[in-house]
Amino acid sequence: MADNYIRLADTIASDEGKAYITIDGQNREMFELQSLDASLSLTVISRRMLGRKMTQHKVVGAEGTGNATLYFMNSTQLNNTIEYIKTGRWKSVKVQVKNEDPQSTIGKQEVVLENVIFESIPVTKVAEGDDPITFDSGFTFDGIENLESFQLPINYR
Fold first, then answer.
1. Biggest alpha carbon distance in the chain?
2. Cβ(113)–Cβ(97) under 8 Å?
3. Model pTM?
4. CA distance 35 to 16
């Protein structure tokens, strides 16, 4: 029982991960990614039922949203957006993210976010200084698949 505590080595370092993007069937590493976070928000309704004093709750849906910071070094999303403006055809985007820290005993988690829509597409930017150009974009996703899940730390198994 004394060995059941959170070991720092089992936490996942924030820079230990990889992301891949699939656009129109073309898969590649998301080399321009600086950071990405995604989450699910549950849609919950609440009702007080006749004869009950406590309000009850029920999950009736979910929404996927996220944020990304990217280096300004890839024109794929810009070109896809221009094509959409001209033709009305939007290319489907999937993002696959793997979190895995070799020091940790919990293994890895790998998820696929489906129908990702980045809300902000950079066109151009010029700035004073030596820092790399980055931009932030919120995004939505309509589906999720969990390819692999974390395990319990070895001292909890």
1. 67
2. yes
3. 0.90
4. 11
